Amino acid sequence: MAELLDMDRLCVRDTRHIILSELTMHVGRGEKVALVGESGCGKTMSIRTLLHMLPDDVSVTSGSLTFDGTDVLSLRSHQLRQELYSRVGFVAQNTSASLHPLLRISTQMTDFYLERHRGVRRSQAVEKAAGILRSLGMRDVERVLSSRPDQLSGGMRQRINIAIALMDDILLLVADEPTSALDAHVRRQIEEVYISLAERSCLAMLLVSHDLGFVRRMADRVYVMYAGKMVEEGLVDEIFSAPVHPYTRSLIALANVKYKNKDEDLAQLGGFVPVVGRESRSCAFASRCRYERADCMADVEYRRLSDTHYVRCWR
Amino acid sequence: MKRITPSLAAGITLVCIVLIPALVSLFCMPYDPQAMDLHSRFAAPSAQHLLGCDHFGRDLLSRLMEASRLALASGLFSVFLGALGGIILGIAAALGPKWLETMLMRLADALMAFPTILTALALAAILGRGTAPSIIAICVAMIPTFSRLTYSMVCEGRASLYVRAARSYGAGPLRIAFCHLLPSLMGRLVTQLTSSLGSAVLLESSLSFLGLGIQPPSSSLGMMLSEARAYVLTHPYQALPPGLVLLVMVLGFNLLGDGLNDLIFDRRRAVHG
Amino acid sequence: MSMLEAKDISMVFPDNGYEALSRVSIRVGEGESVGIVGESGSGKSTLASIMGGLLRPTGGRVLYQGRDIAELRGQEKKDFRTSVQYIFQDPKQAMNPFYSLMRVLEEPLRINRKDLGRQERRRLIEDMVRRLGLETDLLSRHADEISGGQAQRIVIARALLLEPRIIIADECVSALDLSVQAQIINILRHIRKDTGAAFLFISHDIELVRYFCDRIHVMLHGRIVETLDADRLREDAQSDYTRLLLGDTYE
Questions:
Q1: How far apart are CA B101 and CA B106, in angstroms?
Q2: What number does CATH give the domain C4-90+166-248?
Q3: In chain A, which residue's Cα lies nearest the Cα of B269?
Q4: Residues of A with CB below 8 A from B270's CB?
Q5: Is the dihedral of CA C81, C87, C88, C90 positive or negative?
Q6: Which chain B residues are closer than 8 Å to C98 by Cβ?
Q7: Does a structural domain hold residue A231?
Q8: Do C204 and A183 touch (CB under 8 A)?
Q9: What is the ipTM of this complex?
């Protein structure tokens, strides 16, 4: 059986710049995959490509994208609803903005489900929604279903969004920064929700995150993106125990920053993610890299280190 | 990268179709639009009179050119005045004290509820029939739209972070209104201005259809329609040219407004993730 | 005498009657760095707006060098406006999207430094931008054409150009990537050292506040739960809430 999600040398650009350059990524059935990198690296754009949610002026110029045997890029809008959105669930980054402020939770949870499943009664759908909320560890489900978003806490709203994604029997859950912008104790609750979801072996996950602690606990495999390209991929142990690319190493070092000595500056990675020049074959990270040398300006190939571990660096 | 959308292209084309003859009429017209020639009454379109003649034997094409010029001029004038008044009132309501806000916004509500035709009738009763009362009436009809739009956008903009930042380094209310808020409103206002032109032209035509606007012997689209109505059974094609011009004008301005909207809001495009 | 002092500040929002702050008092001394820690909804941002004079409290007073800021007029008011500067959580939103970055930086100088000519103004701006590690050719761009870290540096530059004595930093790194967070915090530390400016530093991250500040106020539901010396945070923390916050960073 083929992979669940197969993204092959995908190029995406807007009217001015290249955003994604030859991006290749796979997610197997039931596999938990994380996509990490700083903002501006193209993480969000790559999942928006997968979900057919690119902004108007952004388009795919080459490459292919198949999900569960379906060619995603050729889908038309009515097919999308049936073929894609019933099998892929999406939890957006700004969870408060993705709920309608005036509609009751029960309506919001069932509307799109009912649209996809003609003939199902609203009461059945609400029953299903209640079941999903319970399975996410929510108490007082009846009250939550009859509430409006502003009557619920941030953590509750986050769980509602996850539950909406789970209304269909999805094969892949895509989550954009699921734990960022949350208060610490809410973040812990949400992490627990994801961890319990991960135990359902049939559900694959694609987690876009810069929270490396969360990624380490959740993911089977990790992709590291920089300036629209993959720079390293590998099993979670390979990435965290033996990172090769200097960018991956910096990210891990930064995640372990401890504000210990008040008299010392924090360890930092200088410079910024470049916005232009992504078509170049040379290493985009070179200007921020301490190992920079002449080879970095040449065509840097994506090297194979093991069956699962690949890196775009000469080191 | 700015893109010309289909609606913008269509809007520009349609507006040019009526604008160019209207401008040409300033310099030359095939005939004097007021010259009557009783021999050519109801003349059919021919090489001499491209669109034929009306019931007084006046050349329809010349009258149409003059009428579109007057319609555009009075539309522009009244929308400009109405927008100016509306923007000032809107900013004053949003940035002024609470009592001013309440008073101005309720006034705008009252004006909105008042039928334009009635305003025009009342003004005609006071000032006499003519162009000025109809322009004032249209202008009054335009004010609430602009004042409400400006008011709501200023209120929205005032809460934005960059306005708070500007206040934090000491920018006064006038600087905030004119240097920060107004430029960001320009796009929306230009759009509203363009589509208001369409409705102003339509209003002017309905007023002159009722005999309230531009007075004979000058020609206007509404008046031409009204005159053609009397002969619609015997000479139905007489109503066609002014009706079409009106249609093209209103459609053109609305499409242009939509197109400008798309074009201008390019700047505020969301930043890529 | 303290530089900036909030005395018994209460804030009830008139439209919904929500009490965001209840009798909060805070002092920021000359060159001191005071931290406020709390989760979302604790009222810490509201307090920041009030202390910078952007929002009028419904109760209590804010004193700048011993004078109530609501009573400041003319030159005194201007002094207050330039001496207290903000750094915001979302730097891109804090700049007019229609302005080039040069114009963004020019505006505060135009308002507050009328003595400067155009050339001098631009020279000052270019020096400041270079000092913060940015290229000057960036200045022709707009806010949506730069990265978050660059934008935050521009916002810091805008604040520093007025030579402030107090900088209010409201969650100034929480929306940024980790690599950029460290850059920005280091910049702020150097500013502290070089200019001696005082800081009111607001964050939800108690470890970061401990690292950056001398004194820490812990806020919950619009009240100050406790006030602690940053160096003796773990030893002195009494309230359960502070312990909860500290616990988060231990796991």
A1: 8
A2: 3.40.50.300
A3: A55
A4: 55
A5: positive
A6: 183-184, 267
A7: yes
A8: yes
A9: 0.84
